[in-house]
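User: Sequence in, structure out. Go.
Assistant: Echoing your sequence, followed by the structure tokens.
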Amino acid sequence: MRTRLNSNKAGFAAGSPLWKAIIPLLALAATAQIADASERRFAYVYEATTQPKGAVEYEQWVTWKTDKADDSSFNRFDIRHELEFGLTDHLQLGIYFSDWRHQQSDSGSKTEWRDFAAELIYNLSDPVEDVIGSALYGEVKVGDEFLELEGKILLQKNVGKWALAWNGTIEAEWEGDSYSEDKGAFEQTLGASYQFNPKFLVGAELLHEIEFDDWSETGDDVVYLGPNVSFRTGTWWLTIAPLFQVTSIDGEADFQTRFLLGFDF
């Protein structure tokens, strides 16, 4: 069995610029004051709850993928900037006003703007008061010769200090000249989180992905698993989830991590 992660990859080694940026965030979060319970406790899994009416929140996303068996130089950073609005107590609007990507590979490196996006989440039931919490999610992404539609079912159950959540996702994507290249994807995410105190939570997340080129050719099943950590304050929160590939797909990154930083207004 081959090694999954080379700790000497660019950007991951101790003392690298990436870690120098992360450490102050962790130190700041560790000294934070007690928060309310509305912040996201997962990085890849969406919860079934929504923002209350009139609430506004900014979220900064960074997803880093690295360590491909068939590309020794691979490093990719996907950056998203989102504003969330509570339209009602059950309906939430999210606007991603700029999604962009920086990627390094054996063939070179490039930085490109990808798209802007909008999402709606409609909460159907509560994860505490009802037998199970549920919500419906829809997102559209539009870029330069790029269009993606995404739908999710969100399920969640909170029991005491524990929260369990599952998402089922279908994606349809078109890109290229006249949007001639199309593919689909099915994704499942599963998460568990335990709240040690109002400002510190720890858990785990699982990500399962499979793509369908031209909606006819089935790709490989890829599975990632790893821990998550969430810190909360009265006005902002930080969630981190490093995931490791537990399958053996050479064309997929062996390691990815997502950082979410949110600010309430």
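User: And one key feature?
Assistant: The chain is about 5% helix and 60% strand.
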